[in-house]
Amino acid sequence: MASLQALSLCSCKFSFSSQNNRRRVIKATNNIPKFRKTHLSLSNLANGSSMEELVLKNDFTSNNISLQTDINESEELVIGKLYAIKETVADRVEMHKNICEQRKNWNSLLLTSINTIILGAATMAGIAATINANGAPLIALKIASTLLYIGATGMVIIMNKIQPSQLAEEQRNATRLFRHIQKHVQTVIDIGSPTASEVEDTMNRVLALDKAYPLPLLGVMIDKFPSAVESAVWWPLRRRIDEGKELETNYENEKRYGNGWNEELENEMREIVGILRRNDEADYLRLGGIALKLNKVLALCGPSLTILGAIGSGFVGIGSFEESSWAVMLGVVGGALASVVNTMEHGGQVGMVVELYRSNAGFFREIEEEIEFNLKEKDVRKRENGELFEMKIALQLGRSIAELRNIADKGHDIKEFGSKLF
């Protein structure tokens, strides 16, 4: 009986397991067509429209890569040009620095040599007047004194013509401005993404500076005795293409205000321009004119006194002592006065003072033109950022932003200078 129950239980398990196996087989066979259908649909999709999309994506990617390559090559070319300009500017800095030292030495050495010659000639004229004999010693002293005066006259004329102290000041200014360009180029490179316009602008600045402060003397030297003192100009003419017509009239407010600009800031900048033009620039031009007139007088007096000394030396010892006393006075006193005049002119570096006033006036004129250049641009998006521009102007004038706004509020009634630096 027990064996029958075990046999029936075993047959039941076998039949149950066989049914489960058939179900599993059926389920497995049912899942196979679904997988095949899915696989077929994906392959059909890939073989159909997706191939066209894949080709388009590949073309778009290759175009982007080629465009990015062109952009990188263009930026590398611009950076290479900027580095070339930087090297040239660095060479200019050394050239102007060396020539500044050379012309500074000219001023000191020529002044010392000329005064020594003049005082030697005056001494010989005085000694000749004390000799009673009319022989060779008197003639030798007279000739030597006269020749020294004539030589000193020629040297004084040349020195007054070139004004070595003014030449040295020109080269100092050129050195400082070329260093400023050098730092500007390095800043543009460090910021990244330089443009071709930066290269053109820097080139124009270098060429304008070469023209403002030339290295040679013959032919291109700045006139040391002009009819009137004018502001030095070392920057290129600012040009802006008017593209306002291309903008829609619906954006008039957006063009006028934005990018840090507003009506108050524009009025403030206009007042600053007026103050700098009326007070600062005009005052330095006035002082430069006074220094120029003084320099002209001294430049005429120096050679005139040496010529009188030469004439007096030639007539020493002719006639009686009373008759030749005027000659002694000219020979001795004329030389002493000529030495004093030369020391005042070149030892006091009056020519350098004229150039200093001229360059200071040019400094304010550059600020004025920079402000006007931004204000004339109707589209504020093409201007410098207003807040940054205001801060830059304040720093250039040695003032805080609050002080800058304060003097702008006073307007035409203010007698104060716009700058605290000079």
Task: For the structure shown, list the relevant keywords.
single chain; 422 residues; mainly alpha; 11 helices; 78% helix; 0% strand; elongated; disordered N terminus; transmembrane helix
Task: Walk me through this protein's architecture.
- This is Petal formation-expressed.
- The chain crosses the membrane at residues 109-133, 139-158, 297-318, 324-342.
- Keywords: Membrane, Transmembrane, Transmembrane helix.
- The termini are far apart.
- Helix content is 78%, strand content 0%.
- With 422 residues, it is an all-alpha fold.
- The longest helix has 82 residues, at 49-130.
- It contains eleven helices and no strands.
- The chain has helices at 2-47, 49-130, 136-162, 164-191, 196-212, 252-256, 263-314, 325-347, 350-376, 386-396, 401-410.
- The protein has one domain (51-216, 256-413).
Summarize the model shown.
The model is unreliable at 1-49 and 241-251 (pLDDT under 50). This protein has helices spanning 2-47, 49-130, 136-162, 164-191, 196-212, 252-256, 263-314, 325-347, 350-376, 386-396, 401-410. It has 422 residues and is mostly helical.
